[in-house]
Amino acid sequence: MESVAISVRNISKCYCIYDSPRDRLKQFILPRFQRLIGVKKDYFREFWSLQDISFDIKRGETVGIVGKNGSGKSTLLQIICGTLNPTSGEVATNGRIAALLELGSGFNPDFTGRENVYMNASILGLRNDEIDARFSKIVDFADIGDFIDQPVKTYSSGMMVRLAFSVIAHVDADILIIDEALSVGDAFFTQKCMRFLRDFMEKGTVLFVSHDTGAVVNLCNKAILLDHGKIVRKDTPKKVIREYLGKLNQSKQQVFDDEVHDIEEGVSVIKDDYIDMRQALFNSSTLRNDIEIFKFNSQQESFGTGQADIISVNIFDEGGMPLSWVVGGENIILQIVCKAYKRIIRPIIGFQFKDRLGQVLFCDNTFITYENEELIAEAGSKLVANFEFRLPVLPTGDYSISPAIAEGTQKEHIQHQWIHDALIVKVHASSACLGLIGLPMRKITISIDD
After folding, report:
1. Which CATH number is correct for 290-427, 3.40.50.300, 2.70.50.60, 3.40.50.12780, 3.40.50.10800?
2. How far apart are CA 412 and CA 398, in angstroms?
3. Does 186 or 91 have the greater pLDDT score?
4. Residue 2 has pLDDT above 70, yes or no
5. What distance in Å separates the CA atoms of residue 436 and residue 91, rounded to the nearest whole number?
6. Cβ within 8 Å of residue 392, ≥6 positions away
7. 206 with 176: CB under 8 angstroms?
8. pTM over 0.85
9. Who has greater pLDDT, 352 or 44?
10. Structural domain boundaries in the chain
11. Which class would CATH give 61-250?
């Protein structure tokens, strides 16, 4: 059992539902008189939020729990954390648990952020001297500035999540339990949380509830599907999500035909550049892929030798005009400007374009283009790398660009600077309803044979 982090055995949870306060009072008073005359009557009806739930989670696993609203997900997490008692069954955990459940849970709204940090970290098992040693890191991670000494009731929802997540990230937990909390917060903080989670998952155990099916598939080793308080399926994330989406579609009475039709013969391979046949329609509607570009932030978390710096990252149109907005599907120039502080032989400049989960949607660098040329940047020189490409059509949400400069080859190089999420872009509208990116369609046809 030492390899098992969480063991759930036959957990059930029943709530008593009263139709009126009068029935609640009757249930409290009358049963003692009913016992005297040998009559029993209940003034409530039972609601079973969970029914006979059993599973094990091994150390180092990341498990996602999915299900429709009301399926019992949050109730199950609360029972595992010990903040709610089950009606029957038992839970055994092996290691320190840190939980981020509903927004603001565990915080006293009248206490300051500082006081809540000490209170929450103490509940999670840290001594005062341990909290003192980590307090500055907690505040830096939360990045809420002087609000740390203001009452939590004055915080926005995003600030509340920042502080709560920062505490659980610094208590050396063995098990991390999260309930949809990361759906609140800005793009910079979400990326910071995802980096922490991916590092934590290398050694710790994670259990989280999410309606974000992409997050479950991308982050988890296993997944559990709950429906009406029962486990419907325990399997790989892809299989569980497939069944979950099927149930959602059934509930919406959507019917899909699985028949696959062959592509019409004689269609030639498309080699020339083109725009989507529906582009004019998209651009004149609310489906236009409007993308807001924020300013380059050189102060974001970074690493490297420091022998070269990235001094700017910008996006330009084809004519070289700087952009603060762009439309997905258009040609752009991503420019990364660096400065060398020593002689750099064979510099490599590149970038990663990531979604809010930290998934790399696409990336590139200058190495292959200049593989056969021995570029040299002298100390004090400026390096400008331009990447010209057609920006994909992106689903709505936040994205980030992480630039980097290195020296050497693709396989063996020295990283001089890598800045996490230095440039944020926000997609406000999109014609891409599914998938990670949208592709421009040259032609779409449908035929109906009688």
Report:
1. 2.70.50.60
2. 32
3. 91
4. no
5. 38
6. 328, 329, 361, 362, 437, 438, 439
7. yes
8. no
9. 352
10. 61-250, 290-427
11. alpha beta
